[in-house]
Design a protein that fits this description.
The complex is a heterodimer of chains A (about 120) and B (about 110). Chain A has about 120 residues and is mostly beta strands. Chain A is built from no helices and 11 strands. With about 110 residues, chain B is an all-beta fold. Chain B is globular and about 35 Å long. The termini of chain B are far apart. Classes of the chains: A mainly beta (about 120), B mainly beta (about 110). The interface between A and B is medium-sized, with 20 and 25 residues.
């Protein structure tokens, strides 16, 4: 059974870069088939998809965040990562990583527990 | 951008009730629609994908249906563990979620 675990700083200063890593166990990123996403949820708000990455490094980002987002994958560590630049208070959220299936529709079938990132000086 | 509008935003129901949650897309998304359940402090859980396909392990009291741009999640015989917030999500153009429907105990 796949498990995902987010890790990274819980506090980031405004204008700096948010960096998170998702460690996957129970599934090998290099085997392909699955994509791997980041999704966030501001406190008391709904869900916002940030983007997804394939083991090859191919990415697809939310157009509203595309200019600030970079995702990368490290198959040797079975991890994928998120970088979000020039953060503001509006980027304060719980950040989830999720396994993503591109089938008849694109959906997220396994999620990490989430990690709260607060943007504050 | 495709907008997903859920209704109602919240509802109160009792164990054993039949609950219907709606999600309307601002344009055709065919059946590129999924449903999730989220409990407080927890990650969302996939319930239904492709509008009506039940995810493995999800109880059969959850059903999804589609009619044009209108999608419905029905919970038959509501159970105590079903009190939660439900989100729809489209993948026809980019990936966006509805604003959520909270189901609480009457």
């Amino acid at each position: 059974q796949v498990q995902l675990q987010e890790s990274g700083p819980g506090l980031v200063k405004p204008s700096e870069t948010l960096s998170l890593t998702c460690t996957v166990s129970g599934a090998s990123l290099h085997r392909g088939y699955y994509y791997w996403s980041w999704i966030r949820q501001a406190p008391g708000k709904g869900l916002e998809w940030i983007g997804y990455i394939y083991y090859s490094g191919s990415t697809n980002y939310n157009p509203s965040l595309k200019s600030r987002v970079t995702m990368s994958v490290d198959t040797s560590k079975n991890q994928f990562s998120l970088r979000l630049t020039s953060v503001t208070a509006a980027d304060t959220a719980v950040y989830y990583c999720a396994r993503t299936i591109l089938g008849a529709t694109i959906y997220f079938d396994s999620w990490g527990q989430g990690t709260l990132v607060t943007v504050s000086s | 951008d495709i907008q997903m509008t859920q209704s109602p935003s919240s509802l109160s129901a009792s164990v054993g009730d039949r609950v219907i949650i709606s999600c309307r897309a601002s344009q055709s998304i065919r059946t590129y629609l999924n449903w999730y359940q989220q409990k407080p402090g927890k990650a969302p859980k996939l319930l239904i994908f492709a509008a009506s396909t039940l995810q493995s392990g999800v109880p059969s009291r959850f059903t999804g249906s589609a009619s044009g741009t209108d999608f419905t999640l029905t919970i038959s015989n509501l159970q105590p563990e079903d009190f939660a917030t439900y989100y729809c999500q489209q993948s026809y153009s980019s990936l966006t979620f509805g604003q959520g429907t909270r189901v609480d105990n009457k």
